[in-house]
Amino acid sequence: MESTITCYYQSKNLAKVYQHYRANTEKSEQHYLLAKLPTSYKKVTIDTDFAEIIYRPTKTDMSIDQQFTDGVTNLDFSRISKNTTKVMTQLLPD
Q1: Could you list the pLDDT tens digit for every one of the 94 residues in the chain?
Q2: Fewer CB within 10 Å, N or C, the chain?
Q3: What contacts 24+ positions apart, CB below 8 Å, involve 18-21?
Q4: From CA 91, how far away is CA 4, in angstroms rounded?
């Protein structure tokens, strides 16, 4: 069943929000997210888990698609104002 979680972060830039998000992700899931936010398109394959992670950054936003054998997780980081970033996590199981 599809589910969506939306969070808002204030007084943090996109890189800091990403670091906060990654730090608060379950330890078993953190290795799916790069330690540092990429500044350009990047595709990462994790063969041991049959996973593919695609990063699509812009100047103010970041889209991350995590493709697993059992479904997809979409993460969208969007700066909606000077001091607010919205993070939307969409879980799409097969």
Answers
A1: 789 999 999 977 888 899 999 999 888 788 889 999 899 999 999 887 788 999 999 888 999 999 998 899 999 999 998 889 999 999 998 8
A2: N
A3: 18/62, 18/77, 21/75, 21/77, 21/87
A4: 6
C-alpha–C-alpha distance, residues 35 and 52, integer Å:
16
Amino acid at 8: Y
Sign of CA dihedral 53, 89, 83, 22: negative
Q: pTM above 0.85?
A: yes
Residue 34 CA to residue 32 CA, distance in Å, equals 7
Contact of 91 with 4, CB cutoff 8 Å: yes
SS (H, E, C) 64-78: EEEEECCEEEEEEEE
Other Cβ atoms closer than 10 A to 65 = 17
Task: Report the sign of the C-alpha dihedral through residues 65, 90, 39, 25, in that order.
Answer: negative
